[in-house]
Amino acid sequence: MKNSLETAAVLIETLPYMQDFYGKTVVIKYGGNAMINSELKNSVIQDITLLKYVGMRPIVVHGGGPEITSVLNKFGKKTEFISGLRVTDEETVSIAEMVLVGKINTEIVNLLNRHGSKAVGLSGKDANLILAKKHFAEVHENGRVSMVDIGFVGEVESINTNILNTLIDSGYIPVIAPIGVGKNGESYNINADYVAGEVAGALGAEKLIMLTDVEGIYRDYQDKTSFISSLSLEEAQQMIAQGSIGGGMIPKVETCIKALQGGTGKTHIIDGRQPHSILLEIFTSQGIGTQVVK
Ligand SMILES: Nc1ncnc2c1ncn2[C@@H]1O[C@H](COP(=O)(O)OP(=O)(O)O)[C@@H](O)[C@H]1O
Ligand SMILES: CC(=O)N[C@@H](CCC(=O)OP(=O)(O)O)C(=O)O
Questions:
Q1: Which of 1, 61, 166, 247 has an alpha carbon within 20 to 30 A of 79's alpha carbon?
Q2: Which protein residue has the closest C-alpha to ligand 1 atom 6?
Q3: Contact 118, 171 (CB under 8 A)
Q4: What is the rounded radius of gyration, in angstroms, for the C-alpha atoms of the chain?
Q5: What pLDDT does residue 3 have?
Q6: Which part of the chain is the Aspartate/glutamate/uridylate kinase domain (predicted)?
């Protein structure tokens, strides 16, 4: 892991090439498992603020899965995930909305603003940012695929790019909570990875960066020497089908695949536990984490 001074050195080396980054749209998916402590949170917030200062167009899509689970526990509700997605009944979707929109979104917006950014928080309901419909989980078992009903879990039908571009063009950083709205005004709990991918695709982002709690993708998750630094779209599809990518990594990799197919330049899964991981990914020639590319 690099310390802050080493990270600063990386940035200074990059200075002559700063104009290459000007005006580039980058979507950052900030996962709940990477929101470990206030020091790391500040490092993520500083990185995003710096991207803005050098003329990039950052957009944040956040998760908050562990926090939702902990609040559900307090209400005596158990959590079940199928293919990386939370089984969501009516009570669960309102708790998820309360945690994601009411707590985590406002926290991130507040932190960004305290660090000198102009951040605006949005859920899928603001200006109908995320129109959604019911999603069924795809379960791979013994080479067969089945579709399972997991309740109020949504998939994105459309993203209102107009509101995002209006905010970005006025100098704001949009911070998006992954709650979608259905055509009858109902709330849908959407995995934040999928929302990040859809936003990246809709805006034609240069990069999609997903912060999580592992170094990146492993060929075999039990074997930490099997780390992969670069993966093609086809290899990624194969790994999901073979079951070597599991749990919460499935929506991430599916998102990378979809974003690449939709025109996003590059996608990255990086370790949010590493201080200044966003800067290290964007401003070093080798980057960090696993990149999934066409
Ligand atoms: N092949 C794999 N490589 C890396 N991580 C994997 C793999 N298969 C499953 N995982 C799991 O995916 C997790 C990341 O997803 P998740 O916990 O949902 O993160 P986040 O909250 O950041 O979205 C890892 O902590 C790991 O347990
Ligand atoms: C349907 C579904 O699984 N929704 C997620 C939304 C939050 C999320 O994605 O948070 P992370 O990025 O921290 O995992 C959930 O309920 O946990």
A1: 61
A2: 249
A3: yes
A4: 18
A5: 65
A6: 24-271
Is 90 exceeded by the pLDDT of residue 12?
no
Alpha-helical segments (H) within 15-171: 38-53, 65-74, 90-97, 106-114, 161-169
Long-range CB pairs of 86-91, under 8 A, 24+ apart, other chains included: 86/150, 86/153, 86/189, 86/191, 87/150, 87/151, 87/153, 88/150, 88/151, 88/152, 88/153, 88/189, 89/151, 89/152, 90/151, 90/152
Beta-bridged to residue 211, according to DSSP, are 30, 270
Decide if the complex's ipTM is over 0.90: yes
> How many whole angstroms from its chain centre is CA 75?
27
Rounded CA gap, 47 and 278, in Å?
Answer: 6
249 touches ligand 1 (CB under 6 Å): yes
Residue 121 CA, ligand 2 centroid: distance in Å: 17
Q: What is the mean pLDDT of residues 8-35?
A: 84
Q: Which residue has the tokens 């330049």?
A: 265
Distance, in Å, from the CA atom of 41 to the CA atom of 45, rounded to the nearest integer, reads 6
- Separation between Cα atoms, residue 267 and residue 253, nearest integer Å: 9
Q: Whose CA is nearest to atom 22 of ligand 1?
A: 212
Tell me the domains of the chain and their CATH numbers: 4-293 (3.40.1160.10)
Annotated binding residue at 65?
A: yes
Using the predicted structure, report yes or no on whether residue 8 has a pLDDT greater than 90.
no
Cβ of 67 closer than 6 Å to ligand 1, yes or no, is: no
Query: CA-to-CA distance for 245 and 238, rounded, in angstroms?
Result: 9
Q: How far is the CA of 214 from the centre of ligand 1 (A)?
A: 7
Most ligand 1 atoms within 8 A of CB, residue of 190, 249, 250, 290 to mutate: 249
DSSP-derived secondary structure letter, 30 = E
Q: Where are the alpha helices (DSSP H) in 139-182?
A: 161-169
Residue of 82, 191, 255 to test ligand 2 pocket, by largest number of atoms within 8 Å of CB: 191
Q: State yes or no: pLDDT of 1 exceeds 60.
A: no
